[in-house]
Amino acid sequence: MVCDPDAPAIETMLTGLAKGQHLLLQRLTGHDEGDCFLQVLLADDTTYLVEHRTGTTAERHRTRSATQAEVHDAVLRWTADHGTVT
Predict the structure, then answer these.
(1) Does the pLDDT at position 19 exceed 80?
(2) Would you say 22 and 39 are in contact if contact means Cβ atoms under 8 Å apart?
(3) Whole-prediction pTM value?
């Protein structure tokens, strides 16, 4: 677990993913706010599945990307928009 990872730490974690492994970034929120996280899975076909959830499961968004650079940029945008992650 890494608290409040910076851009190089996130890049290292993404680079270190093997097929079937995932990276989970979670924002600590109040009990009433629900979960806030971003999850990246390196699929068996070497594409990246990215899921973002804020609050309830109804507020879940998913996408697929073929490049690590796109995922890296998306993760950094999410961390910038949401502040501290764990």
Answers:
(1) yes
(2) yes
(3) 0.78
Residues 6+ apart with CB under 8 A from 15: 68
In the chain, what is the greatest distance between 2 CA atoms, to the nearest angstrom? 38
Buried/exposed 47-59: b ≥16 CB within 10 Å, e otherwise:
ebebebbbeeeee
Q: Cα–Cα distance between 47 and 75 in angstroms, integer?
A: 15
* Inter-residue contact 49 to 43 (CB < 8 Å): yes
pLDDT mean over 6-15? 90
Cα–Cα distance, 76 to 82 (Å, whole number): 10
CA distances from 55 to 32, 37, 62, 71, 84 (A): 9, 9, 15, 22, 16
Distance CA 14, CA 28 (A): 21
For residue 21, the tally of other CB atoms under 10 A from its CB is 11
